[in-house]
Amino acid sequence: MNADDHVPPHIHARYQGHEASFTFDGNLLKGDLPRKQRKLVEAWVLLHAEELEADWELAFNLEHPFRIDPLR
Length: 72
Known about the structure:
Blueprint: E1 10-15, E2 18-23, E3 28-31, H1 35-47, H2 49-60
Antiparallel strand pairs: 1-2, 2-3
């Protein structure tokens, strides 16, 4: 997550040479991931949407965001 990155707020996901960006409502913005990994990231984003939005706001205000548990 980079708060100085362009809007809308989003995350970047990487997997074995693939890269993609997702909005906080789980929509693919750009890039591609294999189908299984894309579905996992979409589900993770939806589970953590409130945390992602709070962290985006912190980072936008130059504050340190909280850690969010990664996919396991």
